Amino acid sequence: MPLGDRNGDKESRYCGVETEFSDNMPQLLEFNIKGGFDFVLAPLFDPAYRPSLDRGSGALPVAGSDLVLSPSQWSSHVVGKISSWIDLDSDDEILRKDSEICLMQELAWASHLSLQACLLPAPKGPSCANYARCVNQILQSSSNMHLWLRIPLRKHEDGDIMDDDLLPCHVTHCQGADPIDSWETWNAFRLLCEHNSQLSVALDVLGSLPSTNSLGRWLGEPVRAAILHTNAFLTNARGHPCLSKRHQKLLTQFFNHSVQVIISGGLVHSSVGAPEAINTSAASHENSDIGHPLRSYLYYVGYLYQKMDPLPEQELYELSYRDFLQSPLQPLMDNLEAQTYETFEKDTVKYLQYQRAVSKALLDKVPDEKASSETIVLMVVGAGRGPLVRASLEAARETSRRLKVYAVEKNPNAVITLHSLLKLEGWENIVTVISSDMRHWDAPEKADILVSELLGSFGDNELSPECLDGAQRFLKPDGISIPSSYTSFFQPITSTKLYNDVKAHRDMVHFETPYVVKLHKVARLAPCQPVFTFVHPNNSSNKDNDRYTRLKFEIPSDTGSVLVHGFAGYFDATLYKDVHLGIEPTMPTPNMFSWFPIFFPLRSPVCVRPGVPLEFHIWRCSGSTKVWYEWCVESPSASPIHNSKGRSYWVGL
Q: pLDDT by residue (tens digit) across 194-206?
């Protein structure tokens, strides 16, 4: 049975079981499905079969025929398990050739059965080049079947001794890799396979786990299954299986990333009244009434899933946006549509923060004794359909201050809405609607307070600096700008999903375009660092908004090697005094959804070894008609400078 749906999250989580080979596939499947599992991870070929020993009789697939199960049963309830003896990089030529032949045969049979996925055995030798070559050939010509490379979840820490007996087979690592870090195995293999999107990972979760930072790398990788070994379970006071706190946290993270769990191994907890180490093959359990020997492990995994906190309303709203690439808005060059305005206007948190900022500014501008006699001139530049006007008027009501408001908006369609609001909201005597670009409007008087919301996911990427510098001429010398400053931030990330989505376009343009994206399946590799800061009003004599910053990131030493697919960008803005607004991960505004992070991809991912700093450069450039970013990695290996002269992406002035 599915572990359950959570608050509308349609990606149900399922639990499977790893089985031994059986020549009676219907019986094996029936036993395990009745036992509560949703699918089986089953060998497709008799493990005794070797092509070099075949005398023309042909291979022996599971049950000998595709007719023993319906196509929907094969597709929905069976994940193929490629023979574990296969070693395509063996020095033994016969074994290597047998392995190549059998791999092709088994995957061809799996494709014929329309299986959704097959599990590949973990690489065994010091090199995985030939294994990767053969898999890559299959991926290039295969249908939609996914291949899961089995990788033991381990990384030896200093002084840590790990039990290799917990592994399903002896696993060493690919050429040039750290022999004690299994992530290196995966990274070498997927690089050899050109980041193929149909190649994923199935992690063997053992009794000992690497460091938290080391585990964090996998959150950005295409992990499709967690193979949870029964001997990784502890025993509670009642003799039932349970998991350590660290294992529980890891499993919860996997659930949040739609990773399926597969129970593997024999019974090692006797409280269920069955003998130790019972085989999960149906051949041992013709009478299914005795129950499944691994049901207590299944129940515990289901319990962990059900005890997870329900998704908050904001997360439910953002589900469909997770890891979905969107081009950033260009509100200065383009006129936004009503649907876009409506989406942003639903973010009540943002406008409450603006209301707080305006309230504080009004109290500073007008003392209590002058509250009934003095009128503050407030200009909302980029008024849209009026939410900032409404927030400002509410701040005036809250503080008992008098306002005269100018609502300046360049979008003629939004101006129509603003004019209608004058009557609907009773603003006729307070608000004047101005249909103009703020940079070109000739204001009839100076403003005490200038309010704007021109911020993009990276702070300045929707040209707030250029717009506010243009509007600053009608702000009084002692006038207040809300926001008063904003800073952009960067951090390196691993995200195979985002990288493959950009790569699918097969051109350079998309690799030189920053994307707005709700980051989900990502590994954040280092703390954020500030990039560019802009202050308003800008009283410097040089109002040049071009910028250049060099950043040096240190990956925590216990993480191990990492692959950087790009950089996540955020912002934090000071609206006024202590009123902040932003999405920087360490200080985000709670429950605000107007902005997702921005993703700056790298044309070629950069591998960073432990102890080696990651040096990154970014430029903010401008011309007469556009503003653009250029970026590159200098160390540990140099990348090309992305988006030179704004050839692929720019923001129009």
A: 999 999 999 999 9
243 and 112 within one domain = yes
pLDDT tens digits, 240-288: 999 999 999 999 999 999 999 999 999 988 754 433 333 444 444 444 4
In the predicted structure, residue 596 carries a pLDDT above the cut 90: yes
Neighbouring-strand partners of residue 204: 152, 227
Instruction: For residues 419 and 489, state if they share a domain.
Output: no
In DSSP notation, 186-222 reads: HHHHHHHTTT-TTEEEEEEE-SS---HHHHHGGGGS-
453 is catalytic: yes
Q: What phi and psi, each to the nearest 5 degrees, are found at residue 160?
A: -95, 130
In a domain? residue 471:
no
Q: State yes or no: pLDDT of 167 exceeds 70.
A: no
| Per-residue H/E/C for 31-57 | HHHHCCCCEEEEECECCCCCHHHCCCC
372 with 413, same domain: the answer is: yes
CA distance 98 to 100: 6
Asked if residue 371 and residue 306 are part of one domain, the reply reads no
Q: What is the pLDDT of residue 620?
A: 98
Answer whether residue 174 shows pLDDT above 60: no
Last residue of a domain, one of 291, 310, 329: 310
326 in any annotated domain: no
Q: Which of 257, 252, 197, 248 is nearest to 223 (CA)?
A: 257
Which pLDDT value is given to residue 478? 96
392 closest CA partner among 362, 428, 347, 422:
362
Domain span holding position 505: 485-652
393 found inside a domain: yes
474: in domain: no
Domain count for the chain: 3
Backbone φ and ψ of 377, nearest 5°: -90, 115
- The identity of residue 580, as a single letter, is H
Q: What is the pLDDT of residues 414-472, one digit of tens each?
A: 999 999 999 999 999 999 999 999 988 999 999 999 999 999 999 999 999 999 999 99
User: Cα–Cα distance between 451 and 420 in angstroms, integer?
Assistant: 21
Catalytic residue among 100, 462, 466, 512: 462
CB atoms within 10 A of CB 146: 18
302 and 342, same domain (yes or no): no
Let me know whether 228 and 301 are in one domain.
yes
Closest CA to 222 of 175, 184, 187, 171: 187
CA gyration radius, the chain = 30
Residue of 315, 453, 466, 512 with catalytic role: 453
pLDDT at 420: 96
Cα dihedral value 547, 491, 568, 383, nearest 10: -50
462 is known as an active-site residue: yes
Residue 613 and residue 508 in one domain: yes
